Amino acid sequence: WRAFVRRAGLPMRDLGTLGGGSSYGMGINRAGQAVGYADTSDGYFRAFATDGDGPLVDLGTLGGKISYAAGINRHGDIVGTAALSDGYRRAFLYRPGAGMTNLGTLGGRSSSATAISDNGIVVGASETADRRWHAFMHDGHKMVDLGALIGYGNSFATAVNAAGHVVGSVRIGDERRAFVYRDGKMTVH
Q1: What is the DSSP string of 54-72?
Q2: Between 20 and 30 A from 133 (CA), which of 12, 39, 171, 177?
Q3: Could you report the per-residue pLDDT of 145-164, keeping only the tens digit for each?
Q4: What is the pTM of this model?
Q5: How far is CA 145 from CA 64, 74, 157, in A?
Q6: Cα(first)–Cα(last) distance of the chain, in Å?
Q7: What contacts 24+ positions apart, CB below 8 Å, involve 39-47?
């Protein structure tokens, strides 16, 4: 597998790896900056960023061995998931010049960020203290539990727009439902 960028009128460009055999692209912004994850020569995978023309830049981890980037906004702020030294994974926000910040959890052991809006709202899912998964929205100061507004099942936020509207899914056994969080109101479809 190889991550690639294709610009209008130009051929597909292989983005390469971080020393291993494969890479996977996850997000791109209007400026053509791309993010994802790639294998390293020691057999782990790491979050990367690239301007689309230059080499992949390893974003590091939160003390563990793996990380992956899932989204990037127009400012170059990147979100994803990175391992801690104890192996648990946490949602992160990476800002150019500032590095990787652990966004924490909703009381559980792990969390994962999936998207970031241009105004810096991060969404994803976090384990709670009772070992359930809840969608979250991080407003730059704290993690807000969107799953608690749903009230049942495991929920996962997957995207956010500039207005702060969040979409995702709810899993109840084998059943799946979609949700939209908009203007402080949760709707499950």
Answers
A1: S--EE---BEEEEEEEEEE
A2: 39
A3: 999 999 999 999 999 999 99
A4: 0.93
A5: 26, 25, 11
A6: 35
A7: 45/20, 46/18, 47/78, 47/80, 47/82, 47/94
